[in-house]
């Protein structure tokens, strides 16, 4: 892994105009880790994903397209030593500028607390925003370990913005969170157990069939996936969403011409000798970017 400054072409090792100022996608590495409660190391996530992305094939066979066709520029790492609410202000402003400039922002965490600022920026511009939340955990606690802005509370703060949250993959739910969901009409989820007896296609249907209409923000915690697939995460919860389901959800979002505003992938905790996790995150990042960039191109009339 390199410690040199991140170059504009760092994601996928792109060259020249593929990562120039007109690139449709902007990768924002946020190596932020302040409220982690179990195993530490998510601050190394963005660099590991960028490094692994050099090996990702340009062609995404699931969406039958290439992110580089629309351009992907990588920003320097966002460093913030302050509390999560301070980072939220920094990312709110930065992501807001990207959205106003017509870009598709894609953030790489870091811990999940990075999500509040970007989603706040998107929600201010799209009051009917829907957050499609992949996670093993609801992150819906009102406060956790002395803060209201840590990774365990981020979706509760997002919920307070007035947006709708639709989660899937949840399977580690506190009693407080279990009691919270039924009382809310803007927060729903498809739990892991609900998907147990279904075939892969039925699983996709169960998730997509109830997804609310509206512009989407993808807030994806890699621990939503089966930890057999991505063991390198801080709180690897057994069970979880399989690779084909998550890939097919992205394809369905594209086929249904859903409007994607921005996205993030968080909570990779790289471990020496476990590079399969880093690569899975890089591959998923590319697939998410392809979906987002195709939506952006459709919005601009450049894609039917
Ligand atoms: Mn999680």
Task: Describe the secondary structure blueprint for this structure.
Blueprint lengths: L24 E6 L14 H9 L5 E2 L4 E2 L5 E3 L9 H17 L3 E6 L6 H10 L4 E5 L19 H6 L4 E7 L4 H6 L6 E5 L8 H9 L7 E6 L21 H13 L4 E7 L8 H25 L5
Parallel strand pairs: 1-4, 1-5, 5-10, 6-7, 6-9, 7-8, 9-10
Antiparallel strand pairs: 2-3
Helix pairs in contact: 1-8, 2-3, 6-7, 7-8
The site of manganese (II) ion (MN) has 7 residues, from loops.
Notable characteristics:
Arginase, Chain A; eight-stranded parallel β-sheet; binds manganese (II) ion; 16% strand; 304 residues; alpha/beta; 31% helix
Plain-language structure description:
The chain has helices spanning 45-53, 84-100, 116-125, 154-159, 175-180, 200-208, 243-255, 275-299, and strands spanning 25-30, 59-60, 65-66, 72-74, 104-109, 130-134, 164-170, 187-191, 216-221, 260-266. By secondary structure, it is of the alpha/beta class. The longest helix has 25 residues, at 275-299. The chain is built from eight helices and ten strands. The protein has an eight-stranded parallel β-sheet, sandwiched between helices. The chain has a two-stranded antiparallel ribbon with strand order 2-3. The chain is globular and about 50 Å long. The structure holds manganese (II) ion (MN). Manganese (II) ion binds next to loops.
């Amino acid at each position: 892994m390199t410690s040199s400054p991140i170059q504009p072409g760092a994601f996928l090792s792109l060259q020249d105009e593929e990562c120039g100022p007109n690139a449709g996608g902007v990768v924002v590495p946020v190596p932020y880790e302040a409220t982690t409660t179990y195993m530490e190391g998510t601050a190394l996530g963005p660099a590991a994903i960028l490094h692994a992305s050099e090996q990702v094939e340009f062609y995404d066979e699931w969406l039958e397209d290439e992110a580089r066709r629309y351009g992907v520029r990588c920003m320097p790492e966002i460093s913030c030593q302050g509390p999560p609410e301070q980072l939220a202000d920094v990312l709110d402003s930065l992501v807001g500028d990207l959205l106003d400039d017509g870009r598709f922002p894609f953030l790489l965490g870091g811990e999940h607390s990075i999500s509040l600022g970007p989603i706040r920026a998107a929600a201010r511009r799209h009051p009917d925003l829907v957050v499609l939340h992949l996670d093993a955990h609801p992150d819906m606690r009102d406060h956790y370990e002395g803060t209201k802005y840590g990774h365990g509370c981020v979706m509760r703060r997002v919920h307070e913005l007035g947006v709708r949250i639709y989660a899937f993959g949840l399977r580690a739910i506190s009693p407080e969170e279990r009691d919270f969901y039924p009382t809310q009409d803007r927060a729903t989820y498809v739990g892991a157990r609900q998907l147990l007896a279904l075939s892969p296609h039925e699983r996709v249907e169960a998730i997509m069939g109830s997804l609310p209409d509206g512009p989407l923000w993808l807030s994806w915690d890699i621990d939503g996936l089966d930890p057999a697939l991505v063991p390198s995460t801080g709180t690897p919860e057994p069970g979880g969403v399989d690779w084909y389901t998550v890939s097919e959800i992205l394809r369905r979002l594209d086929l249904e011409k859903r409007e994607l505003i921005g996205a993030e992938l968080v909570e990779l905790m790289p471990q020496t000798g476990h590079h399969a996790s880093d690569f899975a995150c890089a591959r998923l990042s590319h697939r998410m970017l392809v979906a987002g960039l195709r939506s952006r191109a459709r919005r601009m009339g450049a894609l039917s």
